[in-house]
Structures are given as C-alpha cells and as structure tokens.
C-alpha cells in the first residue's frame, strides 16, 4: 500500500514548537523541540517523530494509538488528555504545545509516571461475587439492566480521572484513604450488576474507599475520554443511597435550614462560609487544577487564604429521634425534588479559596 | 544475587531472582486465562506484561468472541462452528484445534460471566450473538464494539479476585499469582532441553530480572509491528515467536498473515485503525471511487452458493437471513482484502489508496451511534470523521498472524526439541489455518489459554527435580541486553525499524511475487548485519530506544521466517497470496511449512498436515471437500462414506 502517502492529499508539513518535560524523580525541566507536523496528526504522532529523530530515549507510554487502551495519558497544555486522541488541528499553528507527565502520580521518567496507586486501589476493591447456585450458562439478565453497569465497564483505565481528582491531585496524604473516581465507578458497576451477590457495595465505598471525600466538582467526568458520566451516574447515586440509609437527606438538609451555622461540613469544603456561592464560569474564578489550566493569580490567592494545617471536621450525622428518624418531613421543606446532600446553597465547582489543597512542594517556590 | 562477568561497572549487574512454578509471558487474553488456570491448579504463577496490566492488544478486538451457544439461532452447534473455522482457514487448520475450539468456546464464554463479564443480552436474557464474516449463524458474544476490553478487564478482575483470596488465606496478594507489569523477557533459559527459566528487564528501571521456573507459557501475541500499515501496537514484535525459535521450538504457517480488509487509510491520525467487520454485518457496504458496490464481482466459486447475487437479495438478508443469501460484503476477510486491493490497483480507489465503506447512507444516524458507539466516537474524536454522515476510507492493514509456535493441539506444548514450553493465543499456530475468522481469536485465547495454563501446571507437577538455570546463559543474556547501550557507532533503532517495515510492507505484503520475496530475503540479511550493530542512546531507565533495539532482533528473525515460507509456498491460500501462483492447490493443503533455527539461520521444512478424523470429515459435503482435497484424499473419503453406509445397512439388517 504505497499509495497512501499522508502528504498526497493534504497540506505540506509545518514546523511546530513543543515543550516537553524531561527528567526523573530527581527533577527535570521543560525542553524545547521544533518538530515537523503533518495534517491529520495527533500529539502522539509528534512524540513518536521526536523519538525517531531528536529524542530516541524520550519515555512515553502508548499501546493502541486508538483511544482504546488508556496508556498514553499526559497533560497537554496543562489539560489531562490521551495524546493519541489530541488532534494537532486543535492548536493554532503558532502555538507552543507543552507536554508534561500526569501530575498526581510520582515521576518515573519524562512522560511516564508510577501509576501503581491505581492498581493497589483496584486490588482493594472487592471483586464480583458470583450468585450462589447459578451455573455458568444459566445467567439471565435483561439488556436494560446490564446497560447501567456497562457504562462503567467502558472505562479504559487511563487514570485521567484519578489524575485530575482534587482529593489526591495535590494531596499525597489522602491517597491511603481515598480510592478515586475510577474505583467509585467500579463499586457502582458492581452495585448495579444484576447478579452480584454482595449488597454492601455502597457502604464499602463510603467506609473504605473514601467516597465521602468527593465533593462532586465533576472534574473526573470532564476529562473522561470515554464520556462516562462518572459523577452523575456513578458517584452521586452511590452517595445518595449511602446517605439514604444513614440519614435521610431531606431531613439533613432541613436541619441545615433550621440550624444554619451549626451544620457539619463535608471534609473538603473550607470553614470560611457554609453558603459560599461562586460565580460560575468567571475567568479568574476557576477551581484549581493546578497544572496549566488555572489562573496563577487565583491560585496564589487561594494558597494565601487557606490555613493548610487546620483540622478539617469529619462529616457527622444529624441528631435523630427515638425512632431513628430526623424530626422533619417534606412538608416543611422549601423546594421540590431531592436536595443535594451538600446543601442546595453550595454551587459546584467550589471557588479555589475554599479548597484546602496544597502541593507538597508549594513552599519551595 | 550478583553476577559478575566483567570488571566494567556497566556490566556488573544486579539481577533480581524469582522462583515460580509457571511463568506466563504475555498479559493479553491468552496469558491471563493461562495464568488463572495455573493458579487454580495451585501453582505459583507469574504473569509478565510488556505494558501496564490490562493494556494488552486484546482490548482492540471489537467484534466479539465466537462461540456456538445457539442463543440467537438455535440451529448453531459446535459442528457448524467447526465447519466454518475449517472453511475460513481453507482446510489448512489443525483440525483438532479447530474441533476443541468449537466445542469448548461456549463454556469459556459462560465462565466469563461468573467472573463478572456483562455481555449484551438477547430478549430472553441470554448472551446476545451477532453475525460476522464467515460465520454461518449469529455467533459472536459481544459488548457493543468493545468486546476485547470487556474480555481483558474481566480476566484482569478475576486475577485480582484470586489475589484477594490469596490475601485472605496467605496474607499477601502476591502469594500465588503476581503480575510483573512493564517487564520484557529477552531470553528463555534452558537446562538441556528443558525450560529452566526466563530472563528479562523491568522497562521502568532497566534492572534485570530472572525467573527460575520449570514451565513457561508464551502468550505474547503477534508480529504486526514489522509492517508499515498495521493495527498492532508497539508490543507486537514477535517476541514469543523468536523466544520459541531460540529455545528450540518450531513455527508453522508463518507465511499466513491476515491483512484486515478495512483499516482506515485516511486521515493519518487513524491510519491503521481497524473498522470492525460488524460495520459490514450491520449493513455497511463497500464502494469504489465510481460509487459501485463492487463486492458482487469478487465472490469466489467456493462461496458462490452462500452469497447473494443481487443488491436486492443481499439487502433482504439483514432482515430475513433464513430465506436469502448473505451479502458479499460478509465474505471472509482475505477475500474482501483482495477485492479492495484489486479495485485500488485498477485505479478505482480513493486518493489515499483505499475504498469507501459506507454505512452512513444505509442506516439512520441514531442507529449507527447505538450499534457502533465506540467506533463512532473514536473516529469523531481522533479524526473528526462522522461515520453517520460520510463514508469511511478503508484498505488492507496488517492485523493478525495465523502462523506461530507449533504446538500439541490438546496441551499447547511446543513441538521441536524443548520441554516445558507452552504457547496459546496469537503466538501459537495451527488453529486458524491459512486464515482466521473474525471473532475466533477471542474464543481461541480463552480455550487454548486455559489449556496451556492447565497443562503447564501439570507438567510442572510431573517433574521430579527442578531444572537449573545455567550461569553462563544468564551472563550471555545480560551481555546481549546491554550491548546496544554500550555501542555508540551503530544506527538508530527507529531507522532500522522503519527500514524493516518498508521491506516487509512492500515486498512481503498482501500480494506477493517470487522476485520480490527473494529481494526481501536479501534485504533482511543486510538488515540483520545492521541490527547486530544497533546502538541506543541514553540510559537504562525507561528508554524506549533501547527497548526497541532489543525487540528488533525478534522482529527480524520472525520476518525472515515469514519471507522464507512465503517464497516456498507456491500457491495462494487465505492470508498468503502469490500473484505468480494465484490458485489454491490441493496438494499444498497437505503441507505445513515449519521453521526452526539452526544456529543463526532459519531452516524451513515441509511437514504433512495431521489427518482429519473420519467423523469430522463426514461433517462436510463431498462437493465442498472437492474444492480443497486432492483426488487421492477424495477417493479415501468416498471409501469412508461407502464403508459407513455398509455398516449402517448391516446394522439395519441385524435389527
């Protein structure tokens, strides 16, 4: 097939500027490369060209080059992406493209990070429990029932959701107690599996996986290359039903309305104000991803405004009456439909100054 | 332990040592299934994964896993599946493997459900099965178009679940089954003719690792990286094929490579990416640049009876398969590939050298998105191609190697003069004959993965003493591995790889000629000298240039086998097309070409095919067999049938 020369039907190659992080766990820096780019190429094509020319030892993971294996995750201009799915045509011709490794995981070399955290969490998540007494071949499930779990099984384990999650992105210390979005949807998938014999998936997620740490900024959903609705279809239903069993959310919210100011905060909102509403979409008001996607001014501001060493209160259940219920009904509630378990007066994403995240190295700069 | 071979600090090398009962090289479907089986047999098992755990090439399989469960059409059974497989492989298959595969696939698929797999369902809640090229009935268990991902994730999660059991029982996840991620094996180590272990390196650190193990299962996949346009990832460098050769095993059928008929040829960001055959199963048609649906012109005589002759009949088949013949777009993939190649050569191709695959004008956008979700989203995101609005530009792409390690069909034990070596999946040969049917590889992985793992375990059980790893072999392996880093005068490995890909793509590609094949062998010899002097810049930590330099020698020896076998086989059959010998020759059907390594050179040998058992031959019509068998074989068949009839008549009389 000698006929399909990429240039036969396209524009001639152009020279583009790349800045690629080179180094290892002892440090490194961004290095400049000028590299040829052809029409229709993706960032991974360009990295391969660099390996074949200027930088033969440039370390980078990849496998399928088709967005199906989730190996080539990296941060491109600060945004976590699959490099095989990032078209060069999404950048302007004079734009310098900065490529850095995933920030949440320890560096091994260049663009390769140590993602073993994820495999450890995978091992801790209890496996599928086959239904007792059902022989292989006798499993019967309806399409409509398997589809909910199938959405989560689309996951290609690129770990972009894990990388972008605020709870661990700049918080090494949270990693032991927090499994991350990938494993919340694993728990959700098993919870929704029509034949899974365990019925404590939600409780497990809450008690062992650190589901309560999640403050639903939906960053995971935003970066998911498979467009899995991680938050809406996985995390929130898990949270709601956990809350459902532990304490009625209506009531919990009711207590917020009646006793405003004394309401327990979830562990990730700051103590500044319980009613922080932030103007969504404002240029300076983006929530922090640290990387290149945020406004440095806002980040600086955020870091100044937060006491990094303060104790964050754990969520506590509200007081119940002698029947184990909260003394409140829907009649006294001021809106229709289910409320947010975080309070309807909290808008996500939260403003950065209300988040208590810090990079372990932030004081060095 | 420390091995000191030279005073030079760069060769004074720390080697991490491990003891296992079974080492499985490869963490795709076959490797994981083999490891599960070995662990279930109580063996201490290591899984060596060249990439991260769960990234193997199996994830790329889209169509499904073929198994005659009969969920959609109850007339399906193993005999029909066996027939389809043999037909697809042009009767060159190892019949016993095809038989085992057809019989055992349903159990292997059902078993996956007990591991947590969620296949798409039929209305009555069973596993749904879809049509696919070459399969008589809807037979492919599937999950949308990401069946391979489901398969690998399920096996991965089953391994995790076994590790959790081990943790509960023995206190460590890794007590009985451990995954060595991003680890490459460069050499198998022998004690006489017995496998004693495997030597390799961690990609991450460049540190060496030695496994002492009496049994090794090869499950390393294929060789596609030696080709210019390929759907295969960087891992597919024929490691297992080469390791087997160097350990004294033999390869068969290496001339048979499957070029997937419909890989994307434009735009470049998706070049080589496959468009699943289910696009055609779901109504997609192939058109040339003149807008003609050309496949009707390319139905070979052997298939004439089963395929529609008019567009109208073909279109009716989608809704009424029992009363209409199949559209010719669903011919086996080699026929489709050849047809596309002919159209392009005749000047009726697209500017990028392919043809159009059109589903957009045949199905509503909504239905395309529902039936082919990841295909839709992949092309939309990768290349901004909307398959619901415009036709795709497709052409032949190197996809799968039918050839591989010659194995005992029941156990997966490698032939040749080595014991303790097993192979399963793409790296093994014989199962698919000269051509693989779509959907047969996922079930192949499971059926023969399980068998190889189980038999490796019982082989290890049956040994009276453990083979010993010879120190000299380890030292030699270290030296070979470090050599490219120590040279600074040789060529860049990437250049060498490109040159190799050019030789194989241009001269040993989909259509082959004697002169070109001879030329290719000459160039491969030159390349061998250059590869022997390759040098890799940089250090040992995660250095892809070094890794490629080490893979090159595997790619080279396997390419040599392919070129030699392709030159030897003077006929066209399945995945081997000779322009100078365009016909299929019954006499060649009885011959397997077997490659072995003698010192450094590939030696090729003819070997007769095993003879199919009478009750299996009896599954075919005489008219069909006549297309494949020699007159001599047909006479035998007739005698067999006559004897059968006599026996029946005798039985009748007695009653």
Automatic annotation (TrEMBL), chain A:
Q: Specify where the region named Disordered lies, as residue ranges.
A: 263-298, 342-365
Asked if the Swiss-Prot or TrEMBL record annotates the protein with the keyword Iron-sulfur, the reply is yes
Molecular function in Gene Ontology = 2 iron, 2 sulfur cluster binding; 4 iron, 4 sulfur cluster binding; electron transfer activity; metal ion binding; oxidoreductase activity
What keywords are assigned to this protein?
2Fe-2S, 4Fe-4S, Iron, Iron-sulfur, Metal-binding, Oxidoreductase
Q: Where is the 2Fe-2S ferredoxin-type domain?
A: 16-103
Q: In which pathway does it act?
A: Carbohydrate metabolism; tricarboxylic acid cycle
What GO cellular component entries does it have? plasma membrane
Give the cofactors, semicolon-separated.
[2Fe-2S] cluster; [3Fe-4S] cluster; [4Fe-4S] cluster
Question: Which GO biological process entries does UniProt record here?
Answer: respiratory electron transport chain; tricarboxylic acid cycle
SUPFAM superfamilies reported in the protein's UniProt record: 2Fe-2S ferredoxin-like, alpha-helical ferredoxin
| Pfam families attached to this UniProt entry | Fer2_3, Fer4_8
Q: Which residues cross the membrane?
A: none
Per UniProt, the ranges with Low complexity bias are: 266-294
Q: Does the keyword Protease apply?
A: no
What InterPro entries does this protein map onto? 2Fe-2S_ferredoxin-like_sf, 2Fe-2S_ferredoxin-type, 2Fe2S_fd_BS, 4Fe4S_Fe-S-bd, Beta-grasp_dom_sf, Helical_ferredxn, SDH/FRD_Iron-Sulfur, Succ_DH/fum_Rdtase_Fe-S
PANTHER family named among the record's database cross-references: SUCCINATE DEHYDROGENASE [UBIQUINONE] IRON-SULFUR SUBUNIT, MITOCHONDRIAL, SUCCINATE DEHYDROGENASE IRON-SULFUR PROTEIN
Q: Which family does it belong to?
A: Belongs to the succinate dehydrogenase/fumarate reductase iron-sulfur protein family.
The protein's name is Succinate dehydrogenase/fumarate reductase iron-sulfur subunit
Recite the lineage of the species.
Bacteria, Bacillati, Actinomycetota, Actinomycetes, Micromonosporales
TrEMBL record, chain B:
GO terms for molecular function, please?
steroid dehydrogenase activity, acting on the CH-CH group of donors
Q: Which residues form the Fumarate reductase/succinate dehydrogenase flavoprotein-like C-terminal domain?
A: 498-609
Q: Which cofactor does it need?
A: FAD
Sequence positions that bind substrate: 260, 276, 399, 436
- Annotated keywords: FAD, Flavoprotein, Oxidoreductase
UniProt: FAD binding residues: 26-31, 49-64, 239, 426, 441-442
Query: Taking every annotated instance into account, which residue ranges of this chain make up the domain FAD-dependent oxidoreductase 2 FAD-binding?
Result: 21-442
SUPFAM superfamilies listed in its UniProt record = FAD/NAD(P)-binding domain (SSF51905), Succinate dehydrogenase/fumarate reductase flavoprotein C-terminal domain (SSF46977), Succinate dehydrogenase/fumarate reductase flavoprotein, catalytic domain (SSF56425)
Q: Known InterPro entries for this protein?
A: FAD-dep_OxRdtase_2_FAD-bd, FAD/NAD-bd_sf, Fum_R/Succ_DH_flav-like_C_sf, Fum_Rdtase/Succ_DH_flav-like_C, SdhA/FrdA/AprA, Succ_DH/fumarate_Rdtase_cat_sf
Record-annotated active site? 333
Q: Name one Pfam family in it.
A: Succ_DH_flav_C
This one is known as: Fumarate reductase/succinate dehydrogenase flavoprotein subunit
Q: Which organism is it from?
A: Micromonospora endolithica
């Amino acid at each position: 097939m000698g006929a399909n020369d990429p240039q036969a039907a396209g524009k001639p190659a152009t020279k583009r500027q790349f800045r690629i992080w080179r180094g290892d766990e002892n440090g490194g820096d961004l290095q400049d490369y000028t590299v040829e780019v052809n029409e229709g190429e993706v960032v991974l094509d360009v990295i391969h060209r660099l390996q074949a020319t200027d930088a033969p030892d440039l370390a980078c993971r990849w496998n399928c080059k088709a967005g199906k294996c989730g190996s080539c995750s990296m941060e491109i201009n600060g945004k976590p992406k699959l490099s095989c799915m990032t078209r060069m045509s999404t950048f302007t011709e004079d734009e310098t493209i900065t490529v850095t490794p995933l920030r949440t995981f320890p560096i091994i070399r260049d663009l390769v990070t140590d993602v073993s955290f994820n495999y450890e969490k995978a091992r801790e998540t209890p496996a599928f429990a086959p239904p007792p007494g059902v022989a292989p071949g006798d499993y019967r499930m309806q399409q409509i029932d398997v589809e909910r779990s199938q959405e989560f099984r689309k996951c290609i384990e690129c770990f972009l959701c894990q990388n972008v999650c605020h709870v661990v992105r700049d918080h090494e210390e949270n990693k032991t107690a927090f499994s991350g979005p990938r494993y919340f949807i694993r728990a959700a998938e098993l919870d929704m599996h029509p034949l899974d014999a365990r019925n404590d998936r939600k409780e497990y997620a809450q008690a062992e996986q650190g589901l309560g740490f999640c403050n639903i900024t939906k960053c995971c959903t935003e970066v998911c290359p498979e467009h899995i609705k991680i938050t809406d279809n996985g995390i929130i239903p898990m949270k709601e039903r956990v809350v459902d069993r532990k304490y009625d959310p209506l009531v919990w919210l009711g207590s917020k309305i009646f006793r405003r100011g004394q309401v327990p905060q979830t562990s990730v909102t700051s103590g500044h104000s319980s009613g922080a509403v932030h103007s969504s979409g404002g240029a300076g008001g983006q929530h922090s991803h640290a990387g290149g996607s945020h406004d440095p001014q806002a980040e600086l501001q955020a870091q100044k405004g937060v006491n990094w060493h303060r104790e964050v209160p754990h969520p506590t259940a509200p007081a119940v009456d002698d029947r184990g219920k909260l003394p409140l009904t829907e009649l006294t509630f001021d809106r229709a439909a289910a409320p947010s378990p975080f309070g309807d007066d909290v808008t996500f994403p939260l403003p950065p100054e209300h988040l208590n995240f810090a990079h372990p190295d932030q004081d060095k700069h | 332990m420390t091995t000191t071979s030279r005073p030079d600090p760069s060769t004074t090398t720390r080697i991490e040592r491990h003891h296992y009962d079974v080492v499985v090289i490869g963490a795709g479907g076959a490797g994981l299934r083999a490891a599960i089986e070995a662990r279930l047999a109580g063996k201490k098992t290591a899984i060596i994964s060249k990439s991260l755990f769960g990234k193997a090439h199996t994830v790329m399989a889209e169509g499904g896993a073929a198994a005659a469960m009969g969920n959609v059409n109850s007339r399906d059974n193993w005999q029909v599946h066996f027939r389809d497989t043999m037909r697809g492989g042009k009767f060159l298959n190892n019949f016993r493997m095809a038989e085992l595969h057809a019989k055992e696939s349903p159990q292997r698929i059902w078993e996956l459900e007990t591991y947590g797999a969620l296949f798409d369902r039929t209305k009555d809640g069973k596993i749904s099965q879809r049509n696919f090229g070459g399969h008589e009935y809807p037979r492919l268990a599937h999950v949308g178009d990401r069946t391979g991902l489901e398969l690998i994730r399920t096996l991965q999660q089953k391994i995790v679940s076994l590790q959790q059991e081990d943790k509960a029982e023995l206190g460590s996840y890794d007590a009985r089954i451990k995954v060595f991620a991003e680890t490459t094996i460069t050499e198998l180590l022998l004690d006489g003719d017995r496998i004693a272990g495997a030597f390799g390196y961690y990609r991450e650190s460049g540190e060496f690792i030695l496994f002492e193990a009496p049994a090794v299962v090869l499950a390393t996949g294929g060789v596609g990286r030696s080709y210019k346009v390929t759907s295969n990832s960087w891992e597919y460098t024929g490691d297992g094929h080469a390791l087997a050769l160097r350990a004294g095993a033999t390869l068969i059928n290496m001339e048979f490579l499957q070029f997937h008929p419909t890989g994307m040829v434009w735009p470049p960001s998706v070049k080589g990416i496959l468009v699943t055959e289910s696009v055609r199963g779901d109504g997609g048609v192939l058109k040339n640049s003149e807008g003609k649906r050309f496949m009707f012109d390319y139905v070979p005589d052997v298939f004439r009876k089963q395929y529609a002759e008019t567009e109208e009949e073909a279109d009716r088949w989608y809704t009424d398969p029992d009363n209409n013949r199949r559209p010719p777009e669903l011919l086996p993939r080699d026929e489709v590939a050849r047809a596309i190649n002919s159209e392009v050569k005749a000047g009726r191709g697209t500017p990028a050298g392919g043809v159009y695959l059109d589903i957009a004008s045949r199905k509503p956008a909504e239905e395309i998105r529902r039936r082919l979700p990841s295909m839709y989203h992949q092309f939309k995101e990768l290349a901004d191609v909307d398959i619901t609005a415009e036709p795709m530009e497709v052409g032949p792409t190197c996809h799968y190697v039918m050839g591989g390690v010659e194995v005992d069909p029941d156990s997966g034990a490698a032939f040749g003069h080595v014991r303790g070596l097993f192979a399963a999946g793409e790296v093994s040969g014989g199962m698919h004959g000269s051509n693989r049917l779509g959907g047969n590889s996922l079930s192949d992985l499971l059926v023969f993965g399980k068998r190889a793992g189980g038999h490796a375990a019982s082989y290890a059980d049956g040994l009276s003493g453990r083979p010993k790893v010879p120190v000299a072999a380890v030292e030699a392996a270290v030296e070979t591995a470090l050599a490219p880093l120590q040279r600074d005068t040789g060529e860049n490995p990437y250049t060498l790889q490109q040159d190799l890909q050019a030789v194989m793509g241009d001269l040993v590609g989909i259509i082959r000629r004697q002169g070109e094949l001879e030329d290719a062998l000459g160039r491969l010899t030159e390349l061998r000298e250059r590869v022997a002097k390759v040098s890799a810049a940089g250090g040992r930590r995660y250095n892809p240039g070094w890794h490629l330099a080490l893979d090159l020698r595997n790619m080279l020896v396997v390419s040599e086998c392919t070129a030699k076998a392709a030159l030897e086989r003077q006929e066209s059959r399945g995945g081997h097309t000779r322009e100078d010998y365009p016909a299929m020759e019954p006499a060649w059907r009885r011959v397997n070409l077997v490659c072995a390594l003698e010192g450094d050179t590939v030696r090729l040998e003819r070997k007769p095919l095993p003879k199919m058992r009478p009750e299996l031959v009896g599954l075919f019509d005489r008219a069909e067999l006549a297309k494949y068998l020699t007159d001599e074989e047909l006479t035998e068949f007739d005698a067999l049938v006559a004897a059968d009839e006599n026996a029946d008549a005798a039985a009748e009389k007695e009653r």
